[in-house]
Design a protein that fits this description.
By secondary structure, the chain is mainly alpha-helical. The protein has 6 helices and no strands. It folds into 2 domains: 56 residues, no CATH class; 45 residues, no CATH class.
Length: 108
């Protein structure tokens, strides 16, 4: 559907063109597994893809730091890759704060 996979040669939508957003949302809502999701989720997905470097799912996911990629990719592979590359991550990112339990100082 998004043009990200072995079977798809070309993306069905140009995530560079804002005029494609409503049609993308409409087609995603037609898929049974996604029919109960709110349209805003698909618009958010479209915006993430639109703002990505190459306007693709692949470029959108590649731009995240290693700690954030743990949420949606192979965690063991991501940890190995980050270790081999000696990667660092932004501990102030929202995902990092949740994962590391850093919710700020609390006083009772």
């Amino acid at each position: 559907m998004l043009g990200f996979g072995k079977e798809t040669k070309e993306a069905r939508f140009s995530f560079a063109n804002p005029a494609d957003a409503p049609q993308f949302v409409e087609e995603m809502k037609r898929i049974d597994a996604y029919s109960q999701l709110s349209e805003r989720h698909f618009y958010l997905l479209w915006i993430v893809l639109h703002w990505s470097r190459d306007h693709t799912l692949q470029s959108a996911s590649a731009d995240y730091d290693p700690i954030a990629r743990l949420a949606y990719r192979n965690p063991a592979g991501e940890i190995l890759l980050a270790t081999l590359k000696n990667s660092s991550f932004a501990s102030e990112s929202p995902f990092s704060k949740v994962l590391l339990g850093d919710f700020g100082a609390h006083t009772l």
